[in-house]
Amino acid sequence: MRSILSSQGCFFSVLYIFSVALAAVPEPENVTVVSYNMGAVLEWDYPHNASEGVRYTAQFRSHTPKYDPVCQSQQDRKCDFTYKIHHFGVYTFRVQAELQGNVSAWVNTTEFTPDRQTIIGPPAVSLHSKAGDMEVSLQDPVLMGSMLKDVYTNIIYNLSYWKEGQEKTKKQKQTKQKLLLLSDLLPWTRYCVQANIDFQVSNKPSQQSAPVCETTTSNGTVEPWVVAVALISSFLVVIVSLPLLFLLGWYCYKGLRFLYPSAKLPEHFKQYLIEPYRSYIFLAMQNSGEENEPYHAVVIVSDSSDEQADPPSEPSEKLQVHSKEDEDEKDKDQFLQPL
Q1: Angle formed by the axes of helices 280-290 and 313-336, nearest 10°
Q2: Do 219 and 131 contact (CB within 8 A), yes or no?
């Protein structure tokens, strides 16, 4: 009897110690699965006053009761299961805290289905104006490990477009095509476009894209006032250009006449211009320096014998001077005489 009581006492003691050990390590809180574009990241909080030595272990399972470990004894408060799951599977995740050899209780999540619960990002929108219309091109978001069309077969794109600054006047349009044309637009007007995606398997659409704006071009029709302005501008350009062209031609002609005159110089002027230039004064100085001018002495004979003497030097010098001036005048007249 005593042995039975002692064994029961030991069992309760061990159970009490085990419960105290579990209670000594608080369990993680706010355990959630964050899924974006088919990713799966388990995140949690640990708000208790715990030391830095707390570590965590995260596991998951599908349809089997066995959990597969992915993150073991790590300090990060999140665990990435993206490449361990399939987008059509159903999964359960759990996490446990560990401190100084003691562990907390497991905290399980609800069942998670990636294709129904994940958040799909917005499609990429690009605009191109074409002949007054707006061409809208859509591109699907990139999923983790798969393409959007491989997961969702029936996709509908919701478009909203409006004039820039008039967002309250949005117009809606649905399409299954990634390329469409918005034709009910005004030319030379800036429009903005947004888009998201609706799925058949999920009541939750994708995220909305950021507004993308572009200005439409001309639709091919020309307004009458534009034609009138173009004609008046052309007429004014012609009126201003003709006088300028006439003046330009006239000045070019005058310049050519100055460079190439029509009047011809006489032959003796041409000969004078062709021959080397010789200064008359320089030649006179050169001749006077090299040799004396030839002259003839003039002797005056008188009737009286007592007056016969050598010819005076002064009259002869004067005659010599007059003779030299006469020669200079003669040379000058000969030089200027036409050939």
Answers
A1: 140
A2: yes
SS3 content of the chain, % helix, strand, coil (to 5): 35, 25, 40
Q: Would you state the pLDDT for residue 321?
A: 44
Residue with structure tokens 């004064």? 281
DSSP characters for 80-133? E-GGGS-TT--BEEEEEEEETTEE---EEPPPB-HHHHSBPPPPEEEEEEETTE
Query: CA distances (Å), 220 to each of 134, 189, 213, in order?
Result: 14, 15, 22
Give the three-class secondary structure for 175: strand
The length of the chain is 339
Question: Would you give the DSSP letter of residue 338?
Answer: -
CB 104 within 8 A of CB 89: no
pLDDT at 241: 87
pLDDT band at 212 (very low <50, low <70, confident <90, very high): very high
Kindly list the distances between the CA atom of residue 211 and the CA atoms of 103, 129, 135, 164, 301, in Å, as whole numbers in the listed order. 50, 16, 15, 10, 134
Question: How far apart (Å, rounded) are the C-alpha atoms in residues 159 and 211?
Answer: 11
Give, for 166, the enclosing helix (H) or strand (E).
none
C-alpha distance from residue 22 to each of 73, 87, 125, 227 (Å): 17, 35, 53, 88
CA nearest neighbour of 71 among 35, 39, 41, 107: 41
Q: Are 120 and 163 in contact (CB under 8 A)?
A: no
Copy the structure tokens of residue 252.
Answer: 């070019």
- Helix H or strand E encompassing 201: none
Q: For residue range 65-84, what is the model confidence (pLDDT) as tens digits?
A: 899 999 999 999 999 999 99
pLDDT tens-digit series, residues 310-324: 555 444 444 444 455
Rounded-to-integer distance, Cα 287 and Cα 71, Å? 124
